[in-house]
Write a structure and sequence with these properties.
Blueprint lengths: L2 E8 L4 E3 L2 E4 L4 E3 L2 E3 L5 E5 L2 H16 L14 E4 L4 E6 L5 E7 L3 E4 L3 E4 L4 H8 L7 E5 L3 H7 L4 E8 H14 L2 E8 H9 L8 E7 L2 E5 L7 E4 L16 E7 L7 E7 L2 E7 L14 H4 L4 H11 L8 H8 L3 H12 L4 E4 L4 E4 L6 H4 L4 H11 L3 E4 L3 E6 L2 E6 L4 E2 L2 H6 L7 H15 L1 H5 L5
Helix pairs in contact: 4-9, 7-8, 7-9, 11-13
Keywords: Metal-binding, Zinc, Zinc-finger
GO molecular function, one term: zinc ion binding
Organism: Nonomuraea solani
Length: 451
């Protein structure tokens, strides 16, 4: 599997001393542009214990490989400051669990807006685990002048291999989550009872079924239920239950996917986990982004839309469409394109996208969708023959594949294995690309279409 090396260079280790939590930052982006060690916030978190537990939970997800557990590298969480809140995000090492802590109540100085990585090291994790009570916690995101002077320019560097599926997962999650609805909401006591009733087995699959003001657990699919595949993958919710005010469960209204999201309402913050359809199945292979990325306009539209983003806490699609002069469907496709570079996420509670800038080298994320690359190669080689019945024939080394373009069906083994549950295959993508070319250039497609 393709891996890129991501280098984190910190001015020093993050520390928690005498109620002062200093999070060191690595290279990132602020309003003024790229910075080596951006400074975003200095002030108080009025709820110390849930903030410490929530940050530790995000770091735990980054450390964990839920499928086939084995020792691995720690991937430092990403933090975005939008001026009114801090969002801490991470992905599990296996790419099947996405975590985010939204800190909503800040008292202090917002120094800048932007995105960076923050160092969460072993000693800091031990300190966070000991934080208790309701005393305020002073938080600094980025080195202050005293720290910089004291360290005299010393740099702590981490070099971490990042699988391409881990980066692709950020894009897939925001597209998939945008189609989910709120399916159930429980108050704190009901949330505690439900989550503690889940089977402990990491591979257990259950359905959470609304029952009055509660949820009940079913071991088989039930109409209206939300699937949780791999109950052990929500383990980081459990240490937060003592602070829980509510639990919200999100999923597709039509039950078309077994992925889901689980959001705990905490004092002054929210903690969200998005869980892939199977423990062995990372978000990176879901293919939800491929149709949007395959359009000819997506890359150019993304350049326009990207210039209009300004680290807003919520991105209003209608307003963005008006400012960009584009229809809504093209704005959504542009946001998908931006998502492949980590530039947008999706907040289920707000039902809106948000702007961030993952500090990854653009060259490392340019070729992260091999199905789309293969589809374009098929089109360029003339392997697609459009038929007049909304069908196409795609010639490959393995034979001719028959495609139903609108339905997204194909005669290839990959489609028979997944039947559209993981996005379109390369043959369907190629046929759709060729069909759009036909619409845009009728004289060119007359020769390609079957008589």
């Amino acid at each position: 599997m393709t891996q890129a090396i991501q280098s984190y260079a910190y001015a020093g280790h993050s520390t928690l001393t005498d109620g002062r939590l200093g999070l060191s930052t690595s290279g990132g982006t602020a309003l003024a542009g790229p910075q080596a060690h951006p400074r975003f916030f200095s002030g108080l978190l009025t709820q110390a214990a849930p903030a410490a537990a929530g940050l530790l939970a995000v770091a735990d997800v980054a450390l964990t490989r839920y499928h086939q557990p084995r020792p691995g590298w720690t991937r430092d969480p990403v933090v975005t400051c939008d001026g009114g809140r801090l969002r801490f995000e991470s992905f599990s090492a296996c790419g099947g669990v996405y975590a985010r802590l939204d800190v909503l109540e800040l008292e202090g100085d917002v120094l800048d807006r932007g995105t960076t990585n923050v160092d969460v090291n072993g000693p800091l994790r031990e300190s966070l685990a000991r934080v208790g009570g309701r005393d305020p916690l002073h938080l600094g995101v980025g080195p202050d002048e005293l720290t910089v002077t004291t360290l005299d320019g010393a740099v702590v560097e981490k070099k971490v291999p990042l699988p391409s599926r881990w980066l692709r997962g950020f894009a897939e999650v925001q597209v998939i989550a945008a189609a989910w609805d709120l399916r159930a909401e429980l108050t704190g006591p009901h949330a505690v009872r439900f989550l503690r009733s889940l089977p402990r087995g990491a591979r257990s699959t259950v359905w959470a079924v609304p029952s009055g003001r509660d949820l009940r657990v079913s071991s088989a699919p039930v109409r209206g239920g939300v699937c949780l595949s791999g109950t052990g993958r929500v383990a980081t919710l459990l240490p937060l239950l003592r602070f829980a005010k509510a639990l919200r469960v999100y999923g597709p209204a039509d039950g078309s996917s077994t992925a889901s999201a689980w959001e705990l309402e905490l004092p002054g913050m929210r903690y969200t986990l998005a869980i892939s359809p199977e423990p062995w199945r990372g978000f990176s292979g879901e293919g939800a982004v491929l149709d949007d990325l395959s359009t000819d306009e997506a890359a150019a539209d993304a350049d326009v839309v990207g210039m209009l983003l300004n680290f807003e806490p919520t991105v209003e699609l209608g307003l963005l469409a008006d400012r960009a002069g584009l229809p809504l469907d093209r704005v959504r496709a542009a946001l998908t394109q931006l998502g492949t570079a980590g530039r947008v996420g999706y907040d289920l509670h707000e039902a809106a996208h948000f702007h961030r800038e993952l500090p990854y080298d653009k060259e490392q994320v340019a070729e992260l969708n091999p199905r789309l690359t293969s589809a374009r190669r098929l089109v360029d080689s003339g392997a697609v023959r459009l038929l007049p019945t909304d069908e196409a024939e795609v010639t490959t080394d393995g034979g001719v594949r028959r495609v139903r373009v609108s339905a997204g069906e194909c005669t290839c083994p990959w489609w028979f294995d997944h039947r559209g549950s993981r996005g379109p295959c390369k043959h369907v993508l190629a046929a759709r690309i060729a069909a759009r070319v036909t619409t845009d250039a009728p004289t060119a497609t007359t020769a390609q279409a079957a008589p």
